[in-house]
Design goal:
The complex is a heterodimer of chains A (about 500) and B (about 150). By secondary structure, chain A is an all-alpha fold. The longest helix of chain A is centred in the middle third of the chain and has 50 residues. Chain A has 20 helices and no strands. In chain A, about 75% of the residues lie in helices and about 0% in strands. Chain B is built from 5 helices and 2 strands. The two termini of chain B are about 35 Å apart. The model of chain B has no long low-confidence stretch (mean pLDDT about 95). The chains are: A mainly alpha (about 500), B mainly alpha (about 150). The interface between A and B is large, with 83 and 83 residues.
């Protein structure tokens, strides 16, 4: 078991149990929305802007943001913060660019999953299948990378072993996901988003009480210095390009956000969903920033000794707050993990049940899809726990997949596909194929120390997929231009 | 109103692809030659890329108003370019703080974070009914869709 930085108090344990029981209750209540495949896998056209805004934020902000992010600030200063300050305003930018067109697709066809839209837009089972494979792999990778963080968190919160922590956390999530699928994920995410926002208030209060907002102590500390407080940080400067762009433009390529765009009840709900998600995410960014700098401050002023395990930076900060604050902040961390996990369980099971099977010519009967989806949720969960906990080197490789993988398969398909009539079936299949292969090959080459790009490989895969889709589309005409299905044409007038 | 028709979209998509290519080049070559200036140019290309996609997304029925083009679209690129310039100019320097922040930190938080919120989020709220999803455009869309079979 890891070093216990937080002492599990009755307050923390009680708040955690209440959080889990309420989540299960909401998830079961959401069963009323999950009677059809569209409701179970997509929550399509079912929720208002408030629910979707909070749920989008909760699903996008994961364990990486609340635990990994502060660790990166502790080690490298501002560099990683570019990810989070790009992402918040990127929400509304994404809604400006493709929000109405994604929602419009739910009127043009029956949408339950993202590959449904790809199939209809490009009239292609191949595009649907490759996208489903990409989403499934990235979802498994993302979820697996949450397992360790979740285990450490439960260990600190409840004092249980990491194995028991995994069982409690993911068992709770599965308890409501089996009942209500994506609809349950969306409704519980909204509640968990509120818990995260309450935790943010605790973080702001604790940070200023602890540091007085004084960054000069960090700049003047011999083990830190000006690079820790400037706007570029200690990591190589080219990372600012990747982080600023991939997380500003790329947020509209995250399934956690894309799938919400067709889950709003009416087009009017896009307004609240678009701004609330971004503003709420912006608020939670403060956890990344303030907890990270809080940990740096504590070490810079000699209040605590330096730490080696970066994931401990968040717990180090929380350990110096009072009992109530600890309960609020730790519950927010838990909410961040559970909300993201529930979304990806649903995404991965839907990608296989509905899309990959269909693309291979074995469309599962509409009536049986929910049952098959439930079985697959259990399989996905077990796969991720096993992989995340005991996967060793494979986890290190897969752990880098996720955000960039999603953006490289979804930006060509949805952003280009819905903004550009000339985006062709051949173009998007080329872009998707490249993205899936490159996103697996490049981290393998890195991990086996064969070749490493001098910048994050996913910038290359996203750019490559977009460039290839553009070039091939200029010379091909499948489901593009005059060959665009006539039912799609109204979408392009919006 | 400025027309943005199919030909213009072809041009914008090709421009976007070129900008992506330059961004990758600037990251790659800038890292290998340790040229922060080249990386800075890459960052400016990022700001331009944001504007290109914004133009295409903010179009309604193949037109974009001049007002929307200025705010939020172009101003979004401008605020990002200012933020990138400040962090490039102040990187690693020991300087006097502005409002308790290093000038680079200040530039990133105020011009990139807050600036982006003002040009994407605030504009989205203020212009939603008029320029993002106007009711009459949505009604016309729904009428057209109602007259056709669902696409499978």
């Amino acid at each position: 078991m890891d070093e216990q930085l937080i002492q599990p108090s009755p307050l923390i344990i009680g708040y955690t149990i209440a959080f889990m029981l309420v989540s299960i209750g909401i998830g079961w209540y959401a069963n009323r929305y999950a009677k059809t495949a569209e409701g179970f896998f997509g929550g399509t056209k079912m929720f208002g802007g408030l629910v979707i805004g909070l749920a989008s934020m909760a699903a996008v902000m994961s364990a990486f943001g609340f635990i990994g992010g502060p660790g990166l600030v502790y080690k490298f200063g501002f560099t990683s913060i570019w990810m989070t300050i790009a992402c918040g305003p990127g929400f509304a930018y994404g809604y400006w660019v493709i929000g109405k067109r994604m929602r419009a697709m739910a009127e043009v066809t029956d949408v339950a999953t993202l590959p449904d839209i790809a199939r209809v837009r490009f009239q292609s089972q191949a595009a649907r299948g490759i996208l489903a494979i990409g989403l499934f792999l990235a979802a498994i990778a993302y979820l697996s990378s949450q397992v360790k963080g979740g285990a450490k968190l439960m260990n600190q919160m409840l004092g249980v072993t990491e194995e028991w922590g995994v069982a409690i956390m993911f068992g709770t999530t599965l308890a409501y996901m089996l009942v209500s699928g994506m609809s349950g994920s969306i409704l519980t995410d909204a509640f968990q988003g509120l818990v995260m926002l309450i935790g943010v208030l605790g973080v702001i209060f604790a940070f200023f009480a602890m540091t007085g907002g004084d960054f000069s102590a960090i700049m003047n500390a011999p083990n830190f210095g000006p690079s820790f407080v400037d706007g570029a940080g200690v990591m190589p400067f080219q990372l600012v390009i990747t982080f600023a762009m991939v997380f500003f433009i790329g947020v509209m390529g995250q399934p956690t956000m894309l799938a919400k765009m067709y889950a709003v009840k009416s087009h009017k709900d896009l307004k609240l969903a678009g701004w609330l998600g971004g503003v709420a995410y912006g608020a939670t960014s403060l956890v990344w920033i303030l907890v990270g700098y809080g940990a740096v401050y504590l070490v810079a002023t000699g209040a605590v000794p330096a730490i080696k395990d970066l994931d401990k930076a968040a717990f180090l900060f929380v350990s110096k707050t009072g009992g109530v604050m600890q309960a609020l902040i730790m519950a927010a961390l838990l909410a961040a993990i559970v909300s993201t996990a529930s979304f990806f369980i649903s995404l991965a099971s839907g990608a296989i049940t509905r899309d990959l099977a269909g693309a291979l010519g074995h469309e599962v009967d509409h009536d049986k899809q929910i049952v098959v989806g439930r079985y697959l949720q259990v399989v996905v969960m077990l796969l991720c726990i096993g992989f995340g906990y005991w996967g060793g080197r494979a986890v290190a490789i897969l752990g880098t997949l996720g955000w960039g993988f999603f953006a490289s398969v979804t930006l060509p398909t949805f952003m280009m596909g819905l903004l550009w009539k000339r985006c062709s079936r051949e173009g998007v299949i080329t872009g998707l194929t490249f993205a899936v292969i490159a996103n697996i090959a490049l981290p393998l080459l890195e991990n086996f120390k064969i070749y490493k790009l001098p910048y994050p490989y996913y910038l290359f895969t996203i750019a490559g997929a977009i460039i290839l889709t553009t070039v091939v589309s200029l010379f091909t005409t499948g489901a593009a231009g005059e060959n665009l299905p006539k039912e799609m044409k109204p979408v392009f007038k919006l | 109103m400025i027309p943005v028709e199919d030909k213009a979209r072809d041009f914008l998509m090709v421009l976007a692809a070129l900008l992506w290519a330059f961004i990758v080049y600037a990251s790659w070559q800038g890292a290998l030659s340790k040229s922060n200036q080249l990386i800075y140019f890459g960052l400016l290309a990022c700001a331009a890329l944001v504007v290109v996609y914004y133009v295409m997304g903010a179009v309604v029925n193949q037109k974009i108003s001049t007002a929307v083009l200025i705010w939020p679209v172009l101003l979004n690129g401008v605020t990002q370019a200012i933020a990138f310039t400040i962090i490039y100019m102040t990187k690693g320097e020991k300087l006097d703080f502005i409002l308790g922040m290093h000038p680079g930190f200040f530039g990133a938080m105020v011009f990139f974070w807050l600036g982006n919120f003002l040009t994407s989020t605030l504009s989205y709220v203020v212009l939603f009914n008029k320029s993002v999803v106007p009711d009459d455009e949505w009604s016309a869309f729904m009428k057209e869709v109602a007259a056709q079979e669902k696409l499978h």
